[in-house]
Amino acid sequence: MALGSSCLAASLLEDEALARDYASHFSCSVRTLALAPVDKARMSALLAAVQGYVFASRRRLKQVIPFPCDGGLRAVLLCPEKCPPPPSVGDDAAGEVSFSALPHALQQILLGEEQRGAVGRRVRQSGGGEVAGSAEPPASHPVKVRVCTTTVELTVENYTMSEILEHVLRLPSSRVWPRVGWPSPVTVSHPVRAEVALPSGFETVGHIAHLNLHASLLPYKRFIGQVLLDCNAPLIRTVVNKVGALASEFRELPLELIAGEPNYVAEVKQGGYSFLVPYDRVYWNSKLSEEHDRLIQKLMPGDELLDVMAGVGPFVVPAVFARAGLSYVAGNDLNPACTSAMIENVRRNRAIVTTRGAAKGGKKPSRRQATGSDHATTTTSPPQESPGPLPPCAPFEAFNLDGRRFIEEMRRTRIVRPRRLPGVAEPDAGGLGVEPLPSKRRRHFAMNLPALAVTFLNAFSGPQWLDTDAVVHDRAVVVHCYCFVQFSVAALAGSSVSNAKSGSATAVAAGGLEEEEEGDDADQLLRSAISRVGQPGANPPSADWLKRVALAQAELVLGHQLSETKHVEEVHIVRDVAPHKVMCCVSFTLPDSIFDGCATQPPLGDFDPASSGRARNDKRRRSPE
Q1: What sign does the dihedral 588-543-503-192 (CA atoms) show?
Q2: Residue 403 CA, distance from chain mean position
Q3: Nearest-angstrom CA–CA distance, 325 and 323
Q4: Alpha helices, DSSP H only, in 207-272?
Q5: First CA to last CA across the chain, in angstroms?
Q6: pTM score, two decimals?
Q7: Are 175 and 166 in contact (CB under 8 A)?
Q8: Mean pLDDT for the chain overall
Q9: DSSP codes joined into one string, 264-310
Q10: Cis peptide before 540 (omega within 30 of 0)
Q11: Considering just the CA atoms, what is the radius of gyration of the chain in Å?
Q12: What is the tens place of the pLDDT at every residue in 433-449?
C-alpha cells in the first residue's frame, strides 16, 4: 500500500534512525552458570554429558571459556533458561556456588557420568577382570566439578542478520524468542507481515552485496542494508538494491545504494582468473561460473572462440590463456564499458598467469602488455623470452559492435576465403590447381544473452553465407546459443489465461512470458516453438521437452533444420532462473544447406525472425539470466 507524503517522510526518518541506532537495542547482560571439571582431561566427556544444557550457540560467542573463579580451568557456559543462577547470588560479581545449585536432572546426569568414568578406570586398572569394589557416590561433593555464576555480555555482533531483522521488523505477536538472552522488543511503525520473507541471503559480486527487496520492505531498506553490512564486514563494503528491470540499451542494472561506500567496481575471482566488474555499468552473473568452465572445456587446440556478447570477458579471458592452445579469440559487446573492462581483464590476467609461470620456472619473464581501443583493438602474442613453463596465449581482439555486425565481420575475416580458379596452382599443392582443403580448426560463436541471442541466429543464414564462384566458406562453424524456455502451471494444467502480463506468477498462456520478460517477439517465438514441439506430457515438463523447445527456437530463427545426428552437438540445461523458466544452451554446427542455399525450414507464418531481430536490437530489453 502506498504511503502518503507525511507518512513517507516519517518512515524515512524511522529507517535512518534504525540504521543508526539499532545496535544499541541488542546490548544486554545475561547471568548464567559456568561448569568446570576439576580434571582438565575430562572436558570432552563433560561436554558430551551436558550438551542439552549448554548455552545456545551464538555468533562470535564461545561456549567454553576460562573458569571465572580459577583461570587455570576451562568451563562450559550453561543455558540460563535451563540452569538459572540462584537468586541469592549478586548480579555483578562472579561467585562460586555449590553443586546443589544445578537442576536436579543435570545433577543426575553428572552423577551417572562420574560413576561410569570411575568404573571404567577401575576396570582398566584391574586388567579387564572383575571390578574391584563398588562405585559409591561421594558424600559431600558427588561430582568433581566446580560451579560459579558469570555474566555474558551480548552485543549486536552475537546475532545473525536474520535474527536481527526478525526481531525488529516482525509483528510482536509473531515473534518467538527465548525468555533470556534476547534484547527488549523493538516496535516499528509498519511491521512486516509473516508471509513476506525477510532477506536471509544475497548475491555477492566482489565486495558488493546485491539485494532485490520486496516492496513492503522498502520503508526499511537502509536499516536492512546496514544490518547486512555490519554482519558481513569486512568482506562486504557496499550494499545495493535493485530498483527496476534491465531495460537499458547497455543492460545496466538500475541500482540504489542503501548502505556502505559508493564503490561499484568489484574484483571477482572465477576459475583462477581475476575480473574487474564495474557493476553499475555492466551485467554480471556470478551463478554462471560452472557454465563458463563447461564451454571452455569444449574448445580444442587450434580452435577459435568468437564471443558475440562477451560482457567483461568470462569466456574470453580463460580462452586466451587456455592450455588447449586456441589459435584466435575475439570478444565483442555493444556496451563500451564492457569492451573496456574486457580489455583490462585480459591485461590483468596476463600479468597473473605470467607471474605464475615465472614462479614455476624460477625466473621472472618480462611483463607483457596488451594495448588497443574499442574496435578490433587488443592483440596479444607470446613474449620473446619464456624462461618458465608459461601457459599458451591466443591472439585476442576486442570489438565494440552490434552483434550482427560482429558476426558479419568474423565471417568476412575468419571464415570466407577466395575460391582458387582452375589452372592456378597452390604453392604447396604440387601444381594440382585445386582449392585448399578446409582447415581442421573450428570457429565457435558464443552467444550468451538468453533473452535475445536466439533472435540473432538469422545472421548466419543470409545470402552472404552462400558459396559462390568467387568465395567459399570453412564450414566448421559451431554456434553456442543461450536461450530461455518458459512454461506455466496454468498452461500445463490445460487452462487458458488471456492476459500474459497480469503480474501473477502463473497467469501465463501456453509458453507465455511472466512479468518484465523478453516481450512480444520472444513470446511469439516461444509459442511457435511449443506449437511445433507439442505440449508437454507432464507437469513440470521433462528435460527432454525443454531441450526440444530450445532447439525448435533455434531452428525457427535460423530458417534451417538441424539434424540431431549431424548438426546438434548438445542441448544443455544450464539452470533454473525463475519459477517455470530455465536457461538452455543449444550447441550446433551450421548445416551445409546454409552454404548451399537450400532452405530446409517451413515458413513461420506471422513470425518474421529478421524483422523481429532488428526490432529487438533497437529496444535492447534484456532480462536477467
Answers
A1: negative
A2: 26
A3: 5
A4: 221-231
A5: 30
A6: 0.76
A7: yes
A8: 76
A9: -EEEEEETTEEEEEETTTS---GGGHHHHHHHHHT--TT-EEEETT-
A10: yes
A11: 34
A12: 344 444 578 999 999 99
